[in-house]
Amino acid sequence: MMHLEDNIYDGDLLKEHEISGASHVISPSGQSNPSIPKGTKKITIDWLWDSIKLQKQLPTKMYKPD
């Protein structure tokens, strides 16, 4: 789980019990987690790595798990 501030390249990795504060959750394809809060963006690990490589927060549209 992660919390990323909008429009900046910054964030924190959160512990499982801090999931309510997450803005983005790395979610493997085909897995669902009912504890993920509504409105939290589910993304693949590729989104995280690509954002780090490009040093900016990328749009999540192309990184949604199946």
TrEMBL record:
InterPro entries: BRCT_dom_sf (IPR036420), LIG3_BRCT (IPR031916). This is DNA ligase 3 BRCT domain-containing protein. Residues 9-53 form the DNA ligase 3 BRCT domain. SUPFAM superfamilies: BRCT domain. It comes from the Eukaryota.
